[in-house]
Specification:
heterodimer; A: 615 residues; alpha+beta; 5-stranded mixed beta sheet; 5-stranded antiparallel beta sheet; 18 strands; 16% strand; elongated; B: 375 residues; mainly alpha; two-stranded antiparallel ribbon; 2 strands; 2% strand
């Protein structure tokens, strides 16, 4: 077979045509053969031009593959879609204190192909950057590649030193570096960012686009309070040898988060040293069974549903046995109690019976209404959804009444508590300062229920388990909670989440404070106890006192007055004797703290079991 | 080799002895490189969009056999039928092209694609190119040989309308190819040289106007002339890749450029070839494209029917020009222009349209003993 048809060869197609052109004399045919001849010629030119084009491409390919050297490195413009829009915007606290900012820095990089004497250059670099290793530099400089970072974020002195070395192939790139001037303060809220200035956690990641576009971000947090809260829970963690803790201060009137801390924490300036454990935000990502603090919601639910009033009486003499489970009381009163007393003594039995008055459907609907079955729509990627039973049954109804069998984040608890006491409005918690436009929120319980809840929370502090949270003159109200953490098989008695959630002033609540300590160990001075009342309530008090001092609040600065609740103990005896008097009951509470909780023999937790003693 | 007797009068038998088997072989070679390079270049692109690593490769393995079947099927057709087919494809694709303005999907700032069920997206302008080349060849040939037919005017009007639609997309690369193919056809049909000269000036003025009035064209051109003025990321990375590959490449899978180039599996696929397989393989691929283009042009010049000559050379020019523009922009010989490398770059519309183009070209460059007067 011929490769290229030879021109002028006896071509079966071409030859007759040429002959025909010569023989047949009609103008049409002559035109045809003329045009054919012109076409042939011009295609010849076209082929020549195309040939040249292909040869040029081949030549250029050869040149760029073999001969071309990298040349002078061109200042690289980041391929970030369009021109750089100035620097990444600042993040400030509610008083405009800078929490995160960007500073221009120089970074040194090298094109190893252009380095003439790699060994020598590496030695000189090592002397200019003492903290770098010589082997690292020589490895970078000798590699068969055209790009390697030497060091990013040089100090001006380092920049100058390297520049003076005059190493060919070495160049600088202007970059931005993210600085967190407050160190580890508010680390879990801010998050951190990569060397390329991309937010990797916290609001840095959540508001990536806005910050990148240069829109400054003002947070709702108050750095002064944030710092104090962090110190206070760190103190509690040290004192009780806990593994972690979290605290949240929320503005009850609009959902703004004034402080939120989680321990262990990290320094966002040192992104490389951050461990996963430190990165974990307990406040919004940790879901825990909250224990007795949930009795706030259980009581509000029962009152709001009209199933009980504060002095309705529940019989809490006998533990409830359901299926294989037994529901017991920690501060067992072994008598009939009013709703107020159930709350004050944190009775599991009474709570379960109150919940039964509302029923499974009512309870589920209520918890859904107050946002306990959905993730909190907070401005953080680190936001976890609650865990709750898929099949909500009678046993779940009972355990959920005292905060077990449902796991929510501490922020859920704080936000729900705010709604119970602020007049009944659930606000969306936020980390961003609500400038002007107030969040109208959503009514979840009646004004009346909310007033009753304030009275109850105040009662739990004046007479119940939360005495150590009280700040004289500031009408502190709150509820303790101590939940055993679930282990591999059932609950672990020694592994507690001890918390206190409350607010002040109870006549017109403004600040909701939650403190939760993870696995505190009992101390001699606490009688070996590590319950919410001993561990978390004192921290609550410290934070409340700090708020009072910080904002200069005087007793009586608030409107209205809350009638203190008169709790008459129920005097309906059966067999139980002398415990009918309030004074005696109070005495019992103290006694109970000294003794270990009474447990049914052999009733150790079985897998999946929902039997607990909660404070 | 398949044994087909020379006196076989069946359709396939006739086809086998008359089709340009050398070009056909070269096209199959290009497709084979396409398979190889898609496997090498597309996984990082697929992973970037969060899809299965081989989703592009798998789709391309569906597109290429389809394209091959379409190409071989069309190459069986006789020249008059090629003309009719072109008319059908043209009518259909112009309607779809117009439809992109109404129901088109906007990708990277241009409304060039139609979303069709089964086909993830279809780019009608790809199909306009080959069919328009055949139709304008017919109009020009009629005008030249019959004199009375108003072919020149008709073809000018047609080209003007299509160019208008393409620029509105906006799809400047496609418009350049369509205009260039038409210009070459005018040149071949025997346009007086002074008009050719004027046309060249008009083309330069047109590009100048595009530079002045279309901001993305201006930015591309500025960056080509002065690389420091802006983002030349893709081109610089591509050049780096050729440098890394050198003569024989770093070896299959050893390349890094495909992870950095957003268009490594489409417009910049030659950079992946350069890095992983080296200059030698790049030159082989370039050689295959040049071979098919030049050989087909040469065969077209020997045809006795002006229509066939014009149509076949128009299709060959389209094929060659697209390959040349793609490769020349990858090695920064010309400003970066989004253009797929026929059968090698990933893309269903492009592969199918190129199959129609080459199928018609192969049909027209068959040895038409005894057919010449029928056209």
């Amino acid at each position: 077979m011929r490769f290229w048809p030879r021109p002028g060869s006896p071509d079966p197609a071409a030859a007759p045509s040429a002959a025909a052109g010569a023989r047949l004399g009609t103008p049409q045919d002559r035109l045809r053969s003329d045009s054919q001849e012109v076409a042939r010629q011009r295609i010849g030119y076209t082929i020549a031009i195309f040939g040249l084009l292909f040869v040029a491409i081949a030549g250029r390919m050869g040149y760029v593959s073999l001969l071309r050297d990298g040349g002078e490195p061109v200042q690289r413009v980041a391929a970030r879609g369009g021109a750089l829009q100035g620097e990444r915007a600042d993040i400030v606290d509610r008083n405009s204190i800078v929490l995160a900012t960007s500073v221009p820095v120089m970074s040194a990089f090298v094109n190893p192909r252009l380095v003439l004497e790699p060994q020598d250059a590496a030695r000189r670099l090592a002397s200019a950057l003492p903290e770098g290793k010589l082997e690292e530099f020589s490895e970078k400089l000798e590699g068969d590649r055209s790009f390697a970072w030497i060091k990013r974020g040089l100090s001006p002195a380092e920049h100058d030193r390297i520049n003076r070395l005059g190493i060919p192939g070495l160049d600088f790139q202007a970059e931005e570096r993210r600085i967190y001037p407050q160190g580890s303060a508010a680390a879990h809220i801010l998050g951190y960012s990569s060397v390329d200035n991309a937010g990797l956690a916290g609001v840095e990641r959540y508001f990536e686009r806005e910050l990148q576009a240069g829109e400054p971000l003002q947070l709702s947090i108050d750095l002064r309070l944030q710092r104090f809260v962090e110190q206070e829970i760190a103190r509690a963690v040290r004192k009780f040898s806990a593994i972690g803790a979290t605290a949240i201060v929320l503005d009850a009137t609009n959902g703004e988060i004034l402080a939120m801390a989680s321990l262990p924490t990290y320094d966002p300036n040192r992104a490389r040293t951050i461990t996963n454990e430190a990165l974990f935000n307990r406040g919004t990502l940790g879901v825990y069974e909250q224990g007795s603090t949930f009795k706030i919601f259980n009581t509000a639910m029962t009152l709001d549903a009209g199933r009980a009033t504060l002095d309705k009486i529940y019989d809490a003499r006998e533990p409830i046995k359901i299926d294989r489970f037994t529901i017991n009381d920690f501060h067992g009163q072994n008598r009939a109690m009013t709703v107020a007393e159930v709350f004050k003594f944190s009775s599991n039995i009474g709570s379960a019976k109150m919940a039964m008055d509302v029923g499974v459907e009512g309870q589920r609907a209520f918890f859904d209404r107050i946002g306990m079955l959905k993730p909190i729509p907070i401005e953080l990627g680190e936001s976890a959804g609650p865990l709750y039973p898929r099949h909500w049954m009678k046993i779940n109804l009972m355990t959920i009444s005292f905060g077990h069998g449902i796991s929510v984040t501490p922020l859920h608890l704080a936000s729900g508590t705010a709604a119970m006491i602020n007049g009944g409005i659930l606000h969306r918690p936020t980390l961003v300062k609500r400038a002007g436009k107030a969040d109208v929120g959503r009514r979840v319980v009646s004004e009346r229920t909310s007033v009753a809840m304030r009275q109850l929370l105040r009662l739990a502090v004046t007479e119940g388990t939360g005495k150590s949270a009280d700040v004289a003159g500031y009408e502190v109200g709150g509820k303790t909670g101590t939940a055993e953490k679930p282990g591999r098989s059932g609950y672990r008695e020694k592994a507690l989440i001890s918390s206190f959630v409350g607010a002040f002033p109870m006549s017109d609540p403004k600040f909701v404070i939650l403190v939760s300590v993870d696995e505190p160990k009992g101390l001699k001075e606490t009688g070996g106890y590590a319950t919410g009342g001993w561990v978390a309530a004192p921290s609550f008090k410290a934070i409340a006192e700090h708020i009072v001092a910080l904002y200069g609040i005087q007793p009586g600065d608030w409107k209205g007055g809350l009638a203190p609740l008169q709790v008459a103990s129920v005097a309906v005896p059966p067999p139980l004797p002398a415990s009918a008097l309030t004074s005696r009951a109070r005495q019992r509470t103290v006694d109970q703290r000294k003794a270990l909780p009474a447990r049914a023999p052999g009733a150790g937790p079985a897998p999946g079991e929902r039997r607990h003693a909660t404070e | 080799m398949i044994q087909v007797p020379r006196d076989d009068r069946s359709v396939i038998g006739q086809w086998w002895w008359t089709v340009d088997r050398w070009s056909l072989g070269a096209i199959l070679g290009i497709m084979a490189f396409g398979v190889l390079l898609t496997l090498a270049a597309s996984p990082p692109a697929a992973e970037r969009i969060g899809a299965d690593s081989f989703v592009f490769a798998k789709r391309q393995f569906l597109f290429l056999p389809m394209a091959l079947i379409v190409m071989l099927g069309i190459s069986l057709v006789s020249p008059p039928h090629v003309r009719r087919l072109a008319l059908l494809v043209f009518a259909g694709s112009v309607v779809l092209l117009a439809a992109t303005f109404v129901i088109g999907v906007e990708i990277k700032g241009a409304r060039r694609w139609l979303s069709l069920p089964g086909f993830s997206s279809l780019q009608p302008s790809e199909f306009v190119k080959p069919s328009l080349a055949v139709i304008s060849a017919w109009l020009l040939a009629q005008s030249r040989t019959e004199r009375r037919a108003p072919g020149y005017i008709l073809s000018t009007v047609l080209i003007g309308a299509v160019l208008g639609l393409l620029i509105l997309q906006p799809d400047l690369g496609m418009s350049v190819v369509v205009a260039a193919v038409w210009a070459v056809q005018l040149f071949i049909v025997g346009l007086p040289l002074w008009i050719v000269f004027l046309g060249g000036i008009a083309g330069v003025v047109g590009l100048g106007l595009a530079y002045l009035f279309l901001s993305h064209v201006r930015s591309r051109f500025d960056r080509f002339l002065d690389p420091t003025t802006g983002d030349n990321y893709q081109v610089n990375t591509a050049l780096e890749a050729f440098m890394n590959g050198s003569l024989v490449g770093r070896g299959p899978g050893e390349g890094t450029v495909k992870a950095q180039l957003p268009d490594a599996h489409t417009d910049f696929i030659m950079a992946v070839a350069g890095e992983e397989f080296g200059l030698v393989v790049c030159l082989v691929i370039l050689g295959l494209f040049a071979f098919v283009t030049l050989r087909s042009l040469n065969r077209a010049s020997r045809e006795t029917s002006l229509f066939i000559t014009l149509a076949a050379s128009g299709l060959a020019v389209q094929f060659g020009l697209q390959a040349a523009i793609n490769m020349a922009s990858t090695v920064q010989l010309i400003p970066a222009k989004g253009m797929t490398l026929p059968f090698v770059s990933y893309g269903g519309s492009s592969a199918l349209a190129m199959a129609i183009c080459l199928g018609m070209m192969l049909a027209l460059t068959r040895e038409h003993a005894g057919l010449r007067e029928a056209v």
